[in-house]
Amino acid sequence: MASAAEQLASNLNFSAFSRATELKKRIWFTLGALLVYRFGTYIPMPGINVDALRQTFAQHASGVLGLFNMFAGGAVGRMAIFALGIMPYISASIIVQLMTSVIPSLEALKKEGETGRKIINQYTRYGTVLLALIQAYGIAIALESGMGTGLQIVTDPGMMFRITAVITLTGGTIFLMWLGEQITSRGVGNGISLIIFAGIVANLPSAIAQLLTAHAQADLSTFMLLAIIVICIAVIAVIVFVERAQRRIIIQYPNRQMGNRMFKGDTSNLPLKLNTAGVIPPIFASSLLMLPATVNNFSQNMPHWLQAISFSLSHGQPLYMVVYAGLMAFFCFFYTAIVFNPKDTADQLKKHSGFIPGIRPGERTAQYIDYVLTRITVVGAIYIILVCLLPEFLMSTLHVPFYLGGTSLLIVVTVTLDTIAQIQGHLVAHQYEGLLKKSKLRSGKRNR
């Protein structure tokens, strides 16, 4: 059953939106920040031979560089100042989350509330700078070596170029991290997610143009084109349904007495998302599987057995799909265990006198929550595997140019849902404020 806020949000109209001045300012700020990001993806890094870079990137587009280029909105292929994108920040965030489960001091900070969260965010920023420095230096060395193609990508290689590249790329990542935080605090939606979203959506028009060009040149039949459109709509519908799906565990609170009055116990629920891990499993699985292909492209004298492994783990191969599915399932369970701790949830319920009907508070409650979470994670892992393997199957078996992969489609839909939910929340708050002002005016008139 929908909550009161959801029912109110479903009845929102454009007149309510036009009166929400604060929300419009937030939306314009978000659009302006994303426009700045897109502009930065076209500013090239100094000292690069653009023609040689374009030829080199065409040979490595199927490796990790292709994945990073998708998340960076094409900045890697142009070697722009935002070529590193926001990925160092995401990696640092995941590393810090892992460390909070291992290091007791960080775990204690996590439980301190807002103060601890600010300290952990600061550690994440330090980790982002460190990772960006390492990755930027590695990119500078790879560009100087020609990335295995023999072309001179750097016009004037040397220590000065490396210093310039490290400062430029690291500064670009720090700026994007700051820009994402500004969007989160002063705009609408999660800033980091919206930056990745903008990078993926920016490549969507060219992908649609390539699809229509293939149809015009008779490389793609009309039936197959319509089938791709239907499959895209169906996959989007499945993603929306699953991302909104929840397993709600009923929580009851006993009667309590305050003074001479007895208050009746309340009933609430503990919502558990069907896909708790989000888009992290396919991103990690794709990155790991693309490493062999990238190493193979960079190295000219690899042993035959390594070349065979690299070929077996390339796109469209049966071993690639099996390992890809296995890695996604592993990261679904692994990341869910990191971000959600049943024992902490059970302790919080016991602290506030809440309990699950028929389950003893404490350890038994933690075991029950873990049991339910494991079951729904199985369903979530199957959903992630099907969504991400469907484009791979279409491209390898039917030779269909399905350019928008499952990972990118998953990111686009989930970020859109989260942003729309935040916009609805702002509109609901605006309507509540309007109702409160009207009630105050009415009460004031009655008092007169």
Describe it.
The chain has 448 residues and is mainly α. The chain has two domains: 28-196, Preprotein translocase SecY subunit (Orthogonal Bundle), CATH 1.10.3370; 220-447, SecY subunit domain (Preprotein translocase SecY subunit). Helix content is 72%, strand content 4%. The chain contains 19 helices and four strands. The strands form two sheets. The protein has a two-stranded antiparallel sheet with strand order 1-4. A hairpin with a 2-residue loop joins strand 2 (256-258) and strand 3 (261-263). Helix 9 runs antiparallel to helix 10. The two termini are 42 Å apart. Mean pLDDT is 79; it is low at 3-9.
Instruction: Specify the CATH homologous superfamily of the largest domain.
Output: SecY subunit domain
Helix-and-strand structural type? mainly alpha
Largest sheet: 2 strands, antiparallel
Q: Helicity range of the residues?
A: over 70%
Widest beta sheet: strand line-up:
1-4
Shape: globular
Please mark out the parts with pLDDT under 50 across 5 or more consecutive residues, or reply none: 3-9
**What's the total number of strands?**
4
DSSP strand content: under 5%
Between the first and last Cα atoms, what is the distance in angstroms?
42 Å
Name the helix and strand elements from N-terminus to C-terminus, one letter apiece.
Answer: HHHHHHHHHHHHHEEEEHHHHHH
Kindly state the mean pLDDT as a whole number? 79
Count of DSSP H/I helices: 19
Transmembrane segments: 27-45, 57-75, 123-143, 159-179, 191-211, 223-242, 279-299, 319-340, 372-394, 400-421
GO biological process, one term: protein transport by the Sec complex
Family: Belongs to the SecY/SEC61-alpha family.
Pfam families: SecY (PF00344)
